[in-house]
Amino acid sequence: MATQLMKLKVSVDTDTVTTPTDTRFFYVTTTITAAGATLTIDAADFLDDNGDPVVTLPTLTTDDSYFSVYLNGALQMESICTYTPGATGVGKLEIAVPAGGTSILADTPVGLEVMNYAPVSTNTILT
User: Fold this and answer.
1) Which helix (H) or strand (E) holds 69?
2) pTM of the full structure
3) Which fold has domain 18-118?
């Protein structure tokens, strides 16, 4: 008999359920942040969806999460934003205002949205 590749023939059905956790945070600036400067917002300075002070900014799940930053309702580029999860003194959002750009004015609303997904897959071997 000639040499041949021996392999299993298996059919698998995979069902994946993705459960999102959407957490939103809000802040209103108190001073002007000039072009070339960085606006830093501590975790404790944010309010949650109920208007309650925030204690901790959530961790981003590796490969299954993202964050979005809005200034005055406009989505901002990720390259100017740095998100650090954690409690007061550690957790923060930093927005680097590009040099030569426009300042962030006092009383500007800042929205932070953190999306974490928890995908779970179930495999069923059919044959």
Assistant:
1) strand 65-71
2) 0.83
3) Elongation Factor Tu (Ef-tu); domain 3 (2.40.30)
